User: Which sequence fits this backbone?
């Protein structure tokens, strides 16, 4: 069994649509810290920087697709039900990468690992044991580049 980067067409993943217009939003030079470490300069609020999430998260638009997560198997890796994944098909999967793969006809999100000398797809939840893929039909569709997690507000 080999793990290969399949090249599904965009048409097979989602309906084609025009590229979104660039949308740069304000992005001040303030760094969020987990702890209190002093006062930031008030002048930092007025820097004219912007951020376009498409530009930030999508490195190769022609090879990128989005996918919504279902299930709890990847919570240990910070990926939760309803999260949106940014998946890049141009990256060759290496051990340690989070991948989207087609395994025995089912689309899964797992971490690609080598255990011993054999390839496995592992979950981030102890309830789901690693899946040995050397005897299964498996195609890696892409490597997860980013996870978008929204909080209920």
Assistant:
């Amino acid at each position: 069994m080999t793990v290969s980067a399949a090249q599904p067409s965009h048409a097979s993943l989602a309906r084609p649509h025009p590229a979104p217009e660039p949308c740069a939003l304000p992005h001040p030079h303030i760094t969020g810290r987990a702890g209190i470490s002093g006062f930031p300069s008030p002048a930092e609020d007025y820097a004219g920087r912007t951020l376009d999430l498409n530009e930030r998260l999508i490195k190769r638009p022609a090879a990128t697709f989005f996918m919504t997560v279902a299930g709890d198997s990847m919570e240990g890796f910070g990926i939760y039900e309803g999260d949106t994944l940014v998946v890049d098909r141009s990256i060759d999967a290496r051990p340690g990468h989070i991948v989207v793969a087609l395994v025995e006809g089912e689309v899964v999100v797992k971490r690609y690992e080598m255990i011993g000398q054999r390839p496995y797809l592992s979950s981030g939840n102890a309830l789901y044991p690693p899946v040995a893929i050397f005897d299964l039909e498996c195609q890696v569709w892409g490597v997860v580049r980013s996870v978008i997690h929204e909080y209920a507000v």
